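sanity check this:
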Amino acid sequence: MRIEKILLNNFRIYSGLNEIDFNHLKDKNISLIAGKNGFGKTSFLTSMIWGLYGNLMTQVESKYKKDIQSAGGYESYRKTLLNHNVLKQSESKQNETLEFFVEIHLVDVMIPSIPCKKVVIRRTYHYKSKKESLKILIDGHENELTKKVGYDVFINDFILPREIAKFFFFDAEKIVTLAEAKSKSELRALSKAYSEVLGIKKYEDLKLNLNTLLTKMRRSGVSEKDELKIANLEKQRDELSDLVRHNDSKLSDYIEEIENYRHKIDQHQEQLIREGNEMTLEKLNELKSKRDQLKKSHLNLKNELRTLIDLIPLAISQNQLKSLVDQIKVELKIKNSSIDKGLLAEEFGQFEAEFHSGLSDIIKDDQLAHQMKEYIRKLSSARLENIEDPSSESEILLDFDDETSRKIIATYEYIQNSFKVQFNGIVKREKEIRQELNRVLKKIKQGEVRKGNPLAKKLREEKEEWISKIKTIEIKKQGLIEEIGSLKHREASNHKVLSELLKKSNLLKTDKKKYEVTLDLLEKLDRLTARIKEEKKYSLQKSIQLGLGKLMHKNDFVRDVNVRIDEDVMDIDLINQNGNVIDKDGLSKGEQQLYATALLKALVDESGINFPIFIDSPLQKFDKEHSSNVIEQFYPTISEQVVLFPLLEKELSKAEYALLKPNLNGVYLINNNEEGSSIEECKISELYNKFNQQHVLAH
């Protein structure tokens, strides 16, 4: 299925009739609609959703539900879709035919049992009469099938189911919410989308209807005594169910509100960076504290260095210092040797005296005793004479005391061994701290210079306000999650009591057979849906893994993908080379968007639905390499027709545009003036020239 043509008449920012013809080169699948922010890219996507689904557009995306609630209901919201300038002009002319419409021409539509070349869907709103009309033509004529089933049902069943339309009309920057799903409600929403895309929802709806039928049959056999109890329990069940739905909706609003604030914060952060000052007051104070610490460390190092500098002259004259130390060592040896010889002489003398005294008592032969005494005396004298006298070779020149000598020797050994390493280390650390201090001082200076910038100040204030609001909403969100948990616990308890009461019912004979058949059918449906989910999850895993392999520039970053489905909750694990689950929070924004993009493509592929893909902000958050992968691997293969809405030069450079050219079917530029926006078709080679001319005229 392809869109051949789209007509917008007075829809929001688009003034008058705007027609886009996509029927150019059938072998090229990408069309590009470019325009500046505020020129109408989002309005174009809204026109498609409204044109197809009208008041049911709230079932496509929660954003539209919120917009309609803010406007005060669908009737009030619908009035805002008329171009303001056209409305203003018509009020002075009393134009009774004032209207706006969206018309979509589809070709290659497969409708069972009906030959079909073209389907035209036109939704019109007549402003004065407040009437909305929908017309569907098949090959130029109204068809009984569309009338019989109803136009909205026909679009939902044969064109594009509204439950999964969000996967075909999406903001590429916002799909990272798929990658960030963590809470039960978010994972449940992912599982619901999975079921809708794979067609499992029809079976789930059938199971719900069968369960309702079983309840009715059980009610028919309940005694009068239990009837009142069951009625009260069912009332409580409905009330609890309504509260859970309300809180789930409120939780979704909180999540979306937080996401919107984060998006605004990111935009302000980028603008602050462009202004040259993204620095908050807290960051500025941190830098000043760091500056003080660095100054203190720098002063300590300078003191250490000053101590070492006193030794530099000694380090320079190491040869002279060595001679000094050698002389000191010689003099110490002389002193020590002199002391040792005197002590030995005294010891030998004492020994001889004690020996002579004791020898007389042991040896009675006087001659032998005299000979032994003489021998000992000669031996002692010889030993003393053999001790060298250093004073014979050297002389005392310095005569330092022992403490001074030891200090000089220790200083010399320190200079020889540790001084150089310690000195170089301190010099290196001093240089590093000085450089870091200069960088910090420069940042502080930049922050303080820009502190008075009114725009930067305003941006910072708004950013801080939104951060504060996010914290407040997060607290409310957590409280709501706890409340939902409590309600669901009460719901489960209610269901258990109600089931026990209904089990006591006595069914009529005919109802009993119906009951048994219905139970058997429910069991078969349970097995069928479980088998479909299990079979489909493997193809989904493979599709996600292949998509990541093509899009990510990190080879083998994701080794495997594991889809986990537990009743109504679905989660997806990315497995790295070590077999560990990758923390998706640890992925960069660009990588999260790549993962969400791969998941999106896998869901679209698995749905088997052939419908054009519309992508707003197609290359946000991607670096050059990832952008190239997305342009060359993703857009040419995701669908037979892809319509992109980029911001030229900001997110689509000329080099990236060159990569798109081989697959471009046509390019269009949104122009804007006082009356509104209009769409102009351009030659593929002239898009940037036209865009630059538009920029020059605007200034």
In short: The mean pLDDT is 79. The first strand starts at residue 2 and ends at 9.
